[in-house]
Amino acid sequence: MMRQMLAIAAKELRDGVRNRWALAIAGVLAVLALAIAWFGPAASGRVGFASLGATVASLASLAVFLVPLVALLLGHESVVGEAERGTLLLLLAYPLGRRTLLAGKFLGHAALLAAATALGLGGAAAVLAAAGAAGEGLWPAFTRLILSTALLGWVFLALAYAISAGAREKGRALAGALAAWFAFVLVYDLVLLGTLVAAGGRLPPALFGALLVANPADAFRILNLTGLEAAEALGGLGAVARGPLVSAPVLAGVLAAWLAGLLGVAFHRFARREV
Amino acid sequence: MSAVLEIRDVQVRFGAVTALAAMTLTVQPGEVVGLLGHNGAGKTTTMKLALGLLRPQAGTVRLFGTDPAGRAGRVARRQVGFLPENVSFYDSLTGREVLRYLARLKGRAPREADALLERVGLAAAADRRVRGYSKGMRQRLGLAQALLGHPGLLLLDEPTVGLDPMATAEFYATVARLRAAGTAVVLSSHVLAGIERHIDRCVIVGRGHVLAAGTLEELRAEAGLPVAIRARGRWPDAPPVADDPAAGVWVRRLNGHQVEIRTTPARKLAVLRALAAAPGIEDIEVQPPGLEALYAHFDARLHGGGGKESRGA
Ligand SMILES: Nc1ncnc2c1ncn2[C@@H]1O[C@H](COP(=O)(O)OP(=O)(O)O)[C@@H](O)[C@H]1O
Ligand SMILES: [Mg+2]
Q1: Which residues pair with B25 in a beta bridge?
Q2: Residue B99: what pLDDT?
Q3: What is the ipTM of this complex?
Q4: What is the b/e burial string over A50-82, where b = at least 16 CB atoms within 10 angstroms of the residue's CB?
Q5: Residues of B with Cβ-Cβ distance to A94 under 8 angstroms
Q6: What tens digit of pLDDT does each residue of A13-60 get?
Q7: pLDDT at position A230, please?
Q8: Best mutation target, B53, B55, B87, B105, to test chain A (most A CBs within 10 A)
Q9: What is the pLDDT of residues B36-72, one digit of tens each?
Q10: CB pairs under 8 A between A and B
């Protein structure tokens, strides 16, 4: 069973490398990281490198758009793609459990995402270090960024799997994935801010903070707001970011809970899926 | 020996649709059974049942003596090879990569994949991407994966749809070798032409019922359907056999030098003798009733004349 799962994961990983998903993800992240580090300060009229905190915060607020989209696109075909190709029926006729199949595929995709993230952001950090750009704290900050980006990617990968496991057609899975991206990455914050404005200050800050952190995209963003400078850059959010609700373990816990919950949904839907 | 596959009085419904109303199919080791019927008859559903991918609402399914949808089903499935009707393998992998991957999933050594590629005649194309494979090559790859692990039972769902006659012949040649090696085969088809010679026994399904079962000769004899004979030759006046509906001989001129004669199985030899002895005869072709005719006959018998009435192929 373990062996089958690893064989499936290895195939997904190889597919992702061969059709250049890995390269694209790593490349885009690396280019973004370097561009922000080099050109970020130009906007404020200074010359040279941005401070580490500002670089990481800017990078996180770009990654929060990009990484969920990439993960959703990577995973939305996972089940429904095999179903349309006819290979799902074939694989389920093998001496292979459904859970093993789904777990193997997820493992492969998750490894692909993590490796591409580590390669892209790690590569950028190495360039910055070589250029003597950031001094102290570079590696701890980037390590946290890489780990949290991978975790964010996995959450949205699990969401893509949950969508795919319940979808009849690839087109619908894609539509569902894009809708999910809009909802989590764009709409959620707008609605929350709208609520805040409409409530005219009567919304308890703790509730607002909890609602903000409940969204995995925001949890990720806040997790990477290190240092006062970055917190100030985000204005009102800074107050929330300093609250006790949002210590790094809690934020990581929110992401992990989303990951576990969405994987649970994906496995449940796949177990009940008709072939 | 005990049966490889035993499906008894099975009923399968999808909501309001009854896919199988009363399906019974027993397959003994080493026999080749044709599962024949039109689209929607329930052939694929029967195969999914055998594989434990569906649970019947009523009736029993036994694969190598165990319930394939139960706990031991996974073990039983090790001994089964399955070729689904519309499968397109991973286009971006080579044939060898696909087969090695599937070998691992079936718990077999990758070496076995290489040997099978050789056996189905794909050795030369093994390291090319599946994307560039012809339909016939894809089907051979499909057969190769079904053969992983030396299965005791092969389920082939409409394996020759879309294959040209040459590829079909090659496909059946491989099936014939397997049969000789003692593997039981169930192959489904919605046409009779081409598969007749390759099956020991057939089960005709329609509307979720078994309409008839037996060897094709038995079924044809039982149905007593007319045989169509085409004769070509030079006969300036009348054709060599006269129209005689009372005796069960119907003659139709197709053109100046071709006739089609329909006759009962009992009169067939007499007609053939007369044709062979006729002056100017050039060619004789015998067409036994096809699936369409058999299907219509047995469907009408089961459903009290509700089926299509057609004679001949
Ligand atoms: N998953 C399903 N949901 C609803 N109806 C189905 C499903 N699978 C098969 N059917 C119906 O069951 C009948 C038998 O289908 P099938 O076994 O695929 O036929 P065949 O393979 O002989 O063409 C058809 O009427 C088909 O529409
Ligand atoms: Mg079918």
Answers
A1: B7
A2: 96
A3: 0.86
A4: bbbbbbbbbbbbebbebbbbbbbbbbbbbbbbb
A5: 77, 102, 105-106
A6: 999 988 888 888 889 888 888 888 777 665 555 555 667 777 888 888
A7: 46
A8: B105
A9: 998 899 999 999 999 999 999 999 999 999 999 988 8
A10: 60
State both tokens at B75. Answer: 């073990």
The pLDDT value given to residue A226: 57
Query: Which of B51, B92, B105 is closest, CB to CB, to A19?
Result: B92
Q: What pLDDT, on the 0 to 100 scale, is given for residue A55?
A: 80
**Residue ranges in chain B whose pLDDT is less than 50:** 306-313
Cβ < 6 A, ligand 1 pocket? A 274; B 14, 17, 19, 37, 39-45
Give the predicted TM-score (pTM) of the model: 0.86
* Angstrom distance (rounded) from CA A105 to CA A98: 11
List the single residue in B53, B93, B102 with the smallest CB-CB distance to A92: B53
Residue type, B243: D
Please give the pLDDT value at position B310: 38
State mean pLDDT over A106-115: 96
User: CA-to-CA distance for A16 and A112, rounded, in angstroms?
Assistant: 7
Sign of torsion over alpha carbons A185, A150, A113, A141: positive
**What Cα–Cα distance (Å) separates residue B197 from each residue in A179, A234, B169, B176, B192?**
55, 78, 11, 10, 10
Question: Would you kindly state where each structural domain of chain A is located, as residue ranges?
Answer: 2-272
